[in-house]
Specification:
This protein has 3 helices and no strands. The chain is mostly helical. The protein has a domain of 30 residues. It is elongated. 0% of the residues are buried.
Length: 87
């Protein structure tokens, strides 16, 4: 929700009329927003929900597996040890 602020050197603008105030009163919308916020606040965290926890664990393991495969593919293929050159 965007707020439009008007700051002027003359001070505050005219007060809204009763008709303008009544137009913005919506108790149904207020109640809906309150109930939605209340239900989201008391929702079970993801790490305590077994299905969500397994999904997160699967995503993490898949990302780790992909990173390991990419690292092995980029590594040099010659397993010979490096030679030491004496000065």
């Amino acid at each position: 929700m965007k707020h439009r602020y008007r700051i002027s050197p003359q001070g505050q603008g005219p007060e809204p009329t009763d008709n303008e105030l009544a137009r913005y009163r919506d108790s149904g919308k207020l109640l809906h927003n309150y109930q939605r916020a209340r239900s989201l606040m008391h929702r079970k965290p993801l790490y305590k929900d077994p299905k969500a926890f397994m999904a997160l664990l699967l995503i993490v393991l898949l990302a780790w597996f992909i990173s390991e495969v990419v690292d092995k593919r980029d590594a040099p293929q010659d397993p010979s040890p490096p030679t030491i050159v004496e000065p």
